[in-house]
Design brief:
It is built from no helices and seven strands.
């Protein structure tokens, strides 16, 4: 488990080679809608100095839970560092949850 928002969702992540697979488990009673698009952040990534040896990367995951007045939009950013000398990978995550605007009739 990488991230838990009780009664809303749980985010799991699995690293295999250079691929990160994410799974969102819906813990709410509402509908889960995943947002499409690129998972990695667009643009150029620059690494200066010794930080390059950790092969830093970033992955974004976007989805929404619920509907109507109870709809919540979620944006998750996952940071990745690779420690080749130890054979490990460190994932960190943060999420922003916002009540989604209600569509006008």
């Amino acid at each position: 488990m990488l991230l838990l928002a009780e009664n809303l969702f749980r985010l799991d992540a699995t690293v295999t080679g250079d691929t990160i697979r994410t799974n969102v488990r819906n813990l709410s009673s509402g509908k889960l809608e995943m947002a499409g698009g690129n998972a990695s952040a667009p643009g150029t990534h620059l690494v200066i100095g010794d930080a390059g040896r950790y092969e830093p990367a970033r992955v974004d995951v976007k989805f929404a839970l619920g509907g109507g007045d109870d709809r919540v939009e979620v944006k998750v950013m996952i940071g990745v560092l690779r420690f080749a000398e130890r054979g490990t990978v460190r994932l960190t995550a943060q999420a922003i949850l916002r009540q989604a605007p209600v569509a006008s009739p």
